Amino acid sequence: MSSILGTYKRREVSFSEGKGVYLTSTTGEKYLDFVSGIAVNSLGHCHPHLVDTIKKQSEKLWHVSNAFTIPEQERLAKRLTDNTFADFVIFVNSGAEATEASIKVARKYFFEIGQPERNRIITFEGAFHGRTLAALFAANNKEHTLGFGPKVDGFDQVPFGDHEALKKAITKNTAAIMLETVQGEGGVRVVPDYCLKPLRKLCDDNGILLILDEVQCGIGRSGKFFAFEWANIVPDIVPIAKGIGGGFPIGACLVNKKVAVGMKPGTHGSTFGGNPLAMSVGNAVLDIVLQKGFLENVQEVGSYFETKLKEV
């Protein structure tokens, strides 16, 4: 019997090695990996550039406190802000942590500008934002929340894609609307461009912040750096993780200058978030994703798969 607490329904197969798009089991079978660690291994297994980066950084410095300036962290933050809508970045270790940071930033913004009553966040049915308590109740999947009461308040949920229900859910207490640009657990449901653009306008008209969760679909998976770029809109807050680490645990919350006003020393923190080893890996991922032609190739390969799958 395993000593691991049974929170997963695990398959019997185990893997001993990964290379590119292939995994090799402990019994020698070779598998083409379509799971990708659940949207994590953005550059495949053991990408040479990532392996080389980890080796070099692990011989120099793994961890120091965020009480000190971390050059690798500064570099990754600069590259993320240079290539996205964001002005600032908070580094954490996972998507759930990035979601929690996003919620805190949104609520603290309204507190800072003298509207503390605006603390509720509208979410969508079928969402998944992580396994920590606030993230769990934000998604409000009954299978996931059962037995973990009392309910974490502050979230109002509406049906996916129902713009009228969304408008009715907005009150004087609404701080933000939070959704995945592409729902993962909800069934790979894409929020269409014609929904995202009115959504941005709805937020602007009501003074509401827009949080777009790109934990699964971000960092090039859609053929753009962020999936929301296809709709030519700009959010206020974006949690990311998974692909930015290429298999190494990294998460981040990207924010614009406006909403950052409330986040001062002591308002948030992470012991391990932004450590030199993780930041070096994140920079190595960007070395490749930001290469000329990389995202165009993602688009071409994606179109090829779409065409062939439709033939099946």
Based on the model shown, name its key terms.
alpha/beta; 312 residues; 10 helices; 12 strands; Aspartate Aminotransferase, domain 2; PyrdxlP-dep_Trfase; transferase
Q: What is the assembly state of the chains in this entry?
A: single chain
- For the residues shown, what is the average pLDDT? 97
Q: What percent of residues are in strands?
A: 15-25%
**Largest sheet entry:** 4 strands, parallel
Please report the total strand number as a whole number: 12
CATH class: Alpha Beta
The separation of the N and C termini measures 41 Å
* Helix-strand topology string: EEEHHHEHEHHEHEEEHEEEHH
Q: Name the CATH homologous superfamily.
A: Type I PLP-dependent aspartate aminotransferase-like (Major domain)
Question: For the largest beta sheet, what order do the strands appear in spatially?
Answer: 6-5-7-10
Tally of separate helices: 10
- Overall structural class, as computed from helix and strand content, comes to alpha/beta
For the record, the CATH architecture stands as: 3-Layer(aba) Sandwich
Q: Please state the overall shape, judged from the principal axes of the Cα atoms.
A: globular
- CA radius of gyration is 20 Å
Number of domains: 1
Low-confidence stretches: none
Per the CATH scheme, the topology name is: Aspartate Aminotransferase, domain 2
Specify the helix fraction band.
Answer: 25-40%
Please render the helix and strand layout as text.
Blueprint: E1 15-19, E2 22-25, E3 30-32, H1 36-39, H2 48-58, H3 71-82, E4 88-92, H4 95-112, E5 120-124, H5 133-139, H6 142-145, E6 155-158, H7 163-169, E7 174-180, E8 182-183, E9 189-190, H8 193-206, E10 209-213, E11 237-240, E12 251-255, H9 276-289, H10 294-311
Parallel strand pairs: 5-6, 5-7, 7-10
Antiparallel strand pairs: 1-2, 2-3, 4-12, 8-9, 11-12
Helix pairs in contact: 2-9, 3-9
Pfam families: Aminotran_3
Cofactor: pyridoxal 5'-phosphate
Family: Belongs to the class-III pyridoxal-phosphate-dependent aminotransferase family.
